[in-house]
Amino acid sequence: MIVVTLQRKKCIGCNYCVELAPAQFQMSRKDGKAVLLKSTEKKGFFTIKSQDHSIFDACEKAVEACPTKIISAKSI
Ligand code: SF4
């Protein structure tokens, strides 16, 4: 399973995650921060769990590129 999390509050809206993993991230027009698509929120952390391992590489690139280090991606 692939688990991706986003600590959304700290997002600075640089758009890197959207460029690198557009299937998982979009920018919000409301507040200019990234949205982790289809995620659920708990205490400020937005999470998706997916059986689709093909999303991992793109998400990992977003993890590495994010300047505020608020994305994590794990394969478990
Ligand atoms: S890469 Fe990080 S800081 Fe930049 S938009 Fe995505 S979540 Fe926000």
What is the architecture at the second tier of CATH? 2-Layer Sandwich
Radius of gyration: 11 Å
The major beta sheet can be summarized as: 4 strands, antiparallel
> Per CATH, what is the topology?
Alpha-Beta Plaits
Which small compounds were modeled alongside the protein?
iron/sulfur cluster
Shape, per Cα inertia axes:
globular
Question: What is the element string, with H for helices and E for strands?
Answer: EHEEEEHE
Text of the CATH class: Alpha Beta
- The rounded distance between the terminal residues' Cα atoms is 5 Å
Number of strands: 6
Strand ordering within the main sheet: 4-5-1-6
Which blocks of ≥5 consecutive residues have pLDDT under 50? none
Strand content: 25-35%
Distinct helical segment count: 2
Portion of residues within helices: 10-25%
Alpha-beta content class: alpha+beta
- How many distinct folded domains? 1
Write down the overall mean pLDDT: 98
Structure description:
- With 76 residues, this protein is α+β, with helices and mostly antiparallel strands.
- The chain has a single domain (2-75), classed as Alpha-Beta Plaits, CATH 3.30.70.
- 20% of the residues lie in helices and 34% in strands.
- A hairpin with a 6-residue loop joins strand 2 and strand 3.
- The longest helix has 10 residues, at 56-65.
- It starts with a strand and ends with a strand.
- The model has no long low-confidence stretch (mean pLDDT 98).
- The structure holds iron/sulfur cluster.
- Residues 6, 11-17, 34, 65-68, 70-71 line the site of iron/sulfur cluster.
